[in-house]
Specification:
The complex is a heterodimer of chains A (123) and B (151). Chain A has one domain: Jelly Rolls (Sandwich), CATH 2.60.120.10. Chain A is 0% helix and 66% strand. Chain A contains no helices and twelve strands. In chain A, the strands form four sheets. Chain A has a four-stranded antiparallel sheet with strand order 3-12-5-8, with no helix packed on it. In chain A, a hairpin with a 2-residue loop joins strand 1 and strand 2. In chain B, strand 5 and strand 6 form a beta hairpin. Chain B is mainly beta. Classes of the chains: A mainly beta (123), B mainly beta (151). At the A-B interface, strand 1, strand 2, strand 5, strand 7 and strand 8 of A face strand 1, strand 2, strand 6, strand 7 and strand 8 of B. Strand 1 of chain A pairs antiparallel with strand 1 of chain B, so a sheet runs across the interface.
């Protein structure tokens, strides 16, 4: 196991109030993978085998929104932004919680416009 | 309107190879921002109000959700109510882990539960914390959430 350090800082001032948020965690990972999706409306999947991902940083460098599928959830990645996902996912439907590890992560462009995603995934 | 700046980085060494990844971007035109620390020993969602830390959004769906499990030992989870389906999307976070999610530029939501060729992202109207369903007990860590609503 190797260790990666993941950090984030968010700073801004709104209505005279300064918001400062920072987070950092060290993740023990067996490996890292880089995912890119740069073909129109295509799927690109990284299979994680039997190892659920620990974290993923996914950046949209294209000109259209994108989607990332993992575990029980799908999340959007807006143009020019990065998302951070970590841990595991579940969904509560009518009081029944369904849990799922993410054994793969798939990226897809949201419409027909070109999308370029780059991602770093630790697992 | 204000601007928030986000910086993310990953550093370390894996299998002898250095790993370095970083990104910085702005969230522009922020007109509403909330920051709340939520201590989740309570039952699922019950009793959270804006006064005691329930991070609700002024607009239908926040444009950015940042949530960090600030516990040093306990797992926790961020719960997001899906306005369209009534279901709840759950991100389980180990101690110290965090997530950063955005609404799409098209303004049609943050999360969905399917992964089909046609996927519609849905609005998240409430954010709260509790234990992760796969963990025993109801003691979850403190989770800080930051909602930023932008236009």
């Amino acid at each position: 196991m190797d260790t990666l350090n993941v950090t984030i800082n968010i700073n801004g001032t709104h209505d005279g109030v300064t918001f400062t948020e920072s987070g950092s965690f060290s993740a023990n990972v067996r490996a890292v993978s880089k995912l890119t999706a740069d073909v129109t409306n295509s799927f690109q999947t990284i299979s994680l085998g039997q190892h659920s991902f620990v974290f993923a940083i996914i950046t949209n460098t294209g000109d259209d929104d994108a989607l990332v599928f993992f575990g029980r959830l799908t999340v959007g990645v807006p143009i020019g932004k990065s998302i951070v996902i970590s841990g595991s996912t579940a969904e509560d439907v009518s009081g029944t919680k369904a849990y799922a590890e993410a054994l793969s992560i798939t990226a897809r462009s949201k419409t027909s416009a070109g999308t370029r995603l780059r991602a770093l995934i630790g697992y | 309107m204000s601007t928030f700046t986000v910086t993310i980085s990953v550093t370390g060494t894996v299998k002898g190879q250095a790993v370095s990844y970083s990104d910085t971007f702005d969230v522009d035109d922020v007109y509403d921002a909330r920051q709340a620390g939520i201590n989740s020993g309570d039952a699922l969602g019950v009793g959270f109000t804006p006064e005691d830390g329930y991070a609700s959004a002024r607009q239908a769906c926040p444009s950015l959700i940042y949530a960090r499990n600030s516990s040093q030992s306990q797992a926790g989870a961020v719960y997001m109510n899906d306005n369209a389906t009534g279901d709840t999307k759950i991100m389980g976070l180990s101690a110290g882990q965090f997530i950063l999610l955005h609404e799409s530029v098209n303004g049609d939501g943050i999360v969905a539960s399917n992964a089909t060729a046609v996927t519609t992202l849905e609005e998240v109207t409430n954010v709260y914390v509790d234990a992760f369903p796969n963990f025993h007990g109801k003691t979850a860590g403190n989770v800080l959430t930051l909602n930023i609503a932008s236009t």
